[in-house]
Amino acid sequence: MKKFSIYLLVSLTGVFLFANNFNNEDIPYYWEGEKKHYYEIDDKIVLIEFTIDGIDEPNINVAFPEAETYRIKNDTTLQLITRSKLSLLDKLSDKKDIIQHPAIKVKGTNSTSFITDEISVLFKSKKSESEVIAFADKLNLEYLTETSYGTYLFRVLEGGRTIAIANFIPENNEEVVWSNPNFVHLISLFNDPLYPDQYYLNNSG
Predict the structure, then answer these.
(1) Cβ pair 66, 88 in contact under 8 A
(2) pTM of the full structure
(3) H or E stretch including 104?
(4) Tell me: the pLDDT tens digits for 120-165?
(5) Sign for the pseudo-dihedral over CA of 162, 167, 170, 173
């Protein structure tokens, strides 16, 4: 039975922060709506993001064998998940825009997630674009877009601040329903070519 990993990106939400209030970069929790999740950093695995011209998807695994899996974020941005961080960074030494997203494990689970530089925020009332931009400017965020669900997506401009800012927002702003950091989640699946012959595993009754 061969095991392989895939991952998907999900939006959670969060963001508000004032400079003097989030100097502690090791806040061991984040909010998902009204639920607080405690976590610990997993330094054995990391997500490395960088821009690249002409992404050749069929050959990504060949070009980057250090990566367990990958995600094409957009036309020019590639994300690689690896346990061989130093080897991969050495290969990417010519890149100037590398971002490293740390992995976390939520306590009580076996799942691995990667903290990104994005935060989603739901306000109690609809905001004008100028109000959202002003909100972002106060926190040194970049306003990205309003989603079809009525949430607002921001990018954190200071590395390592995502969870601290995401926690600060609902805890200090009465105009916010919730704010959550966005994560990339690593999901493990099993690929077994003999599965069709294992009728006893296909139990739908």
Answers:
(1) yes
(2) 0.75
(3) strand 99-106
(4) 999 999 999 999 999 999 999 999 999 999 999 999 999 889 999 9
(5) negative
